[in-house]
Amino acid sequence: MGDRKQARDAEFQSFVVGRWPRLMRTAFLLTGEQHAAEDLVQTTLEQVYVAWRRVGSADDPEAYVRRVMINAHARRHRRKLKEFLAPRDDSGLNREVPDSSDPIGRADDRGALITALAGLPPRQRQAVVLRYWEDLSESQAAAAMGCSVGSVKSNAAKGIAKLRVVPGLGDMVAHGGRK
């Protein structure tokens, strides 16, 4: 019994270590603040750890964890009943190695993009982050958000349209966030 628990704990630890930067990035984009992102990831991982036997054996554990994170964020947002705030800065965010094929990663002014994302309504922000920053398919984003594919398409289109009118971001989002 103890060996199985140790094996599960080791598997969970390996998952967390390998996915921490990506989880933090997603949480930061959803919350707009470094400390709120850290809290969101910790809350998510606490919930996931309790159910790790089920989560670890899922077809896509990362998608499962992402869904838990989005649900936790939505609950927190509903409870506080306040809009997202623009992040003060992203200097404390753990950086991933830049992907040269990522147009957002090549953006000259990431701060402007993050501030613009913070101005989107929650569902539009989730759809834009999942579709264009996390590069999920419409069906994967719909599963993560707990809604239909049509809702993802609608929210992403509205969010991109709002980002297009932000000065300096028009070229970046002219093609839906992709070149």
UniProtKB/TrEMBL annotation:
Molecular function terms from GO: DNA binding; sigma factor activity
Domain of life: Bacteria
Residue ranges of every copy of the RNA polymerase sigma factor 70 region 4 type domain listed in the record: 111-163
Keyword DNA repair among record annotations: no
GO biological process: DNA-templated transcription initiation
Keywords, in A-Z order: DNA-binding, Sigma factor, Transcription, Transcription regulation
Domain RNA polymerase sigma-70 region: 21-80
InterPro entries in UniProt: RNA_pol_sigma-70-like, RNA_pol_sigma-70_dom, RNA_pol_sigma-E_actinobac, RNA_pol_sigma70_r2, RNA_pol_sigma70_r4_t2, RNA_pol_sigma_r2, RNA_pol_sigma_r3/r4-like, WH-like_DNA-bd_sf
NCBIfam families (UniProt xref): SigE-fam_strep, sigma70-ECF
Name this polypeptide is given: SigE family RNA polymerase sigma factor
Organism: Streptomyces populi
